[in-house]
Amino acid sequence: MKGFDFDFLKVSPTDIVDIILVALLIYYVYTLIRNTLAVNLLVGMFIITVFYWIVKALHMELLTAIIDKFMSVGIIALIVIFHPEIRRFLLLIGKNAFLQKNKAWWGYLFGRKEIERNNLTRIKPIIDACKSMKKTRTGALMVFVKFYDEQFFANSCELVDAKISKRLLESIFQKNSPLHDGAVVISENKIKSASCILPLTDNDQLPSQFGLRHRAGIGVSETTDAVAVIISEETGEISYAKQGRVRMNVSFGELEKLLNKDF
């Protein structure tokens, strides 16, 4: 009787490095598509693939031929569908963000309270500006993005690239300011740009009181990993948009927790 061959269990140092690199690649791809519509697209593609295996096993020739034609252009379809995510991935590499994110990851493990305290310090000017604008019923739209895509925002924004401050945010959204129309984009702890024109949502189930400001905030959260804080000019009510969904009448305590989690 022959024994089992366990040669396949032998792991060389090269194999370990290979596994680690693949794991890192999967992790960073996940961080790019997390909280975006790309996740739903991947789930849809997975369902189509499973369905293809089933109809092929059942010898359903017509359906198999149709899905086979669809899957034959899979690579091109992936490039087209995930074009924004691919651009962000290349941008991530170009800016050496891997090292920065690793530092943040280690800091999260060994200095979580310190990071949370620093993050709340950065968020405070935003909360203070929201309190002031809610009181005066100043309409505002602030968009928070993890990776600032210059090509996406360059055509419709005025570059600011300034430190976040309560007074600056209030000045931008003042009714007499030339930059008050449109959105402010915040990334990397800076106000990157102002007066940004954003794509509107196609969702026709939104409340009737939602104007262009709300629809733009929801629209950008549908197509990117951004979150949006919207202050109504009519009521002063604060809304929070993420993944195409909107939370209305958000309190300042809730806003602080949400930004601390997502920003």
UniProtKB/TrEMBL annotation:
Listed GO MF terms: adenylate cyclase activity; ATP binding; diadenylate cyclase activity
Pfam families the record matches: CdaA_N, DAC
Nucleotide-binding as UniProt keyword: yes
Group of enzyme by EC: transferase
InterPro entries to which the protein is assigned, alphabetical: C-di-AMP_synthase, CdaA, CdaA_N, DisA, DNA_integrity_DisA_N_sf, DNA_integrity_scan_DisA_N
Catalytic activity: 2 ATP = 3',3'-c-di-AMP + 2 diphosphate
Single biological process term from Gene Ontology: cAMP biosynthetic process
Domain DAC, first and last residues per copy: 83-252
Top-level division of the source organism's lineage: Bacteria
TM ranges: 12-30, 37-55, 61-82
Entry keywords, A to Z: ATP-binding, Cell membrane, Membrane, Nucleotide-binding, Nucleotidyltransferase, Transferase, Transmembrane, Transmembrane helix
EC number: 2.7.7.85
Family classification: Belongs to the adenylate cyclase family. DacA/CdaA subfamily.
Reported function: Catalyzes the condensation of 2 ATP molecules into cyclic di-AMP (c-di-AMP), a second messenger used to regulate differing processes in different bacteria.
Subunit and interaction comment: Probably a homodimer.
HAMAP family, per database record: DacA (MF_01499)
UniProt-recorded name of the protein: Diadenylate cyclase
Lineage: Bacteria, Pseudomonadati, Bacteroidota, Sphingobacteriia, Sphingobacteriales
